[in-house]
Amino acid sequence: MPKMGSKVFDEGEVKVVALSGSITLGSGDVTMRNLIKDLVEQGHQKIIVDLGEVSFMDSTGLGELVSAYTSARGKNATLKLANLTKKIDDLMEITQLSSVFDSFESLEEAVQSFR
Amino acid sequence: MTDQKAASELKFIIRVPSVLRYVDIAYEFMLQVVRDTELDPERIDWISLAFREAVNNAVLHGNKKDPEKWVDVEISTREGWLYFKVYDEGPGFDQSILRDPRTQDNIFRPNGRGIFLIRQFVDNVRFLEDGGRFGIEIGIDLAKKVKKES
């Protein structure tokens, strides 16, 4: 199972965290949490997590997304999701986390939503 | 394994140390076995996730990641069903503490979705106590063609 990879870049004033591989217990969960926590603590207010290259996510990965969301909200930052695969979209629906996160079909749409 | 055996019943037992990086080995092993059954390929992703949640729970919550403790995994087929049994050496848990992670009170909690997801993706779940071991049995009806929806 591929380990989690990550890339952070700017789209104007928006920070994009592009993740890849698996976000599962022991494989990427803590890294994701720290990545987003660091961005929030640096004062970034607009964050997009791009999940287009994430092949697998378990309940721990979902929990880390929730933690990232609540820590962003606690610092008045906004975290949105982009490029959910069908599998992850289904997981979000089943757990009803789709009601928590703003999700967009493409990174461009997610960036646009901040303008 | 003979072809005749493959056509009837399978039974594999593996013993995994309670170390997170070994969960992947158990997972890959399970995938190899599941691909040798008549399981609808469309369902494999979801069944695999259920298996992973069960092994994660055993390592993390059952054995508290104690590398001296074992997680025993049994994968078998019987009468058109695929079964995963996952045992740990923990004391088990009170099932009444299981919450619905979708409610407003729970949706922002980072944990508590593992057993819920297992129940969404498989056809039967039982908790087992067997000689000091605590376990979960996951049953999958191989004849089903579509994944179970929420």
Task: Describe the structure concisely for a colleague.
Chain A has 115 residues and is an alpha/beta fold. Chain A contains four helices and five strands.
Annotate the secondary structure layout.
The complex is a heterodimer of chains A (115) and B (150).
Chain A (H helix, E strand, L loop, with lengths): L4 E7 L2 E10 L5 H13 L4 E12 L1 H16 L3 E5 L3 H9 L8 E2 L2 H7 L2
Parallel strand pairs in A: 2-3, 3-4, 4-5
Antiparallel strand pairs in A: 1-2
Helix pairs in contact in A: 1-2
Chain B lengths: L2 H6 L2 E7 L5 H12 L6 H22 L7 E9 L2 E8 L25 H8 L2 E7 L2 E9 L9
Antiparallel strand pairs in B: 1-2, 2-3, 3-5, 4-5
Helix pairs in contact in B: 2-3, 3-4
Key structural traits:
heterodimer, A: 115 residues, alpha/beta, Transcription Regulator spoIIAA, B: 150 residues, alpha+beta, Heat Shock Protein 90, 5-stranded antiparallel β-sheet, 4 helices, 32% helix
Describe the structure.
Chain A is built from four helices and five strands, in the order ββαβαβαβα. By secondary structure, chain A is α/β, with parallel strands linked by helices. Chain A has a five-stranded mixed β-sheet. The model of chain A has no long low-confidence stretch (mean pLDDT 92). With 150 residues, chain B is an alpha+beta fold. Chain B has four helices and five strands; from the N terminus they run αβααββαββ. Chain B has a five-stranded antiparallel β-sheet with strand order 1-2-3-5-4, covered by helices on one side. In chain B, helix 2 packs antiparallel against helix 3 and helix 3 packs antiparallel against helix 4. Chain B is globular, with a radius of gyration of 15 Å. Chains A and B meet through helix 2 and helix 3 of A and helix 2, helix 3 and helix 4 of B.
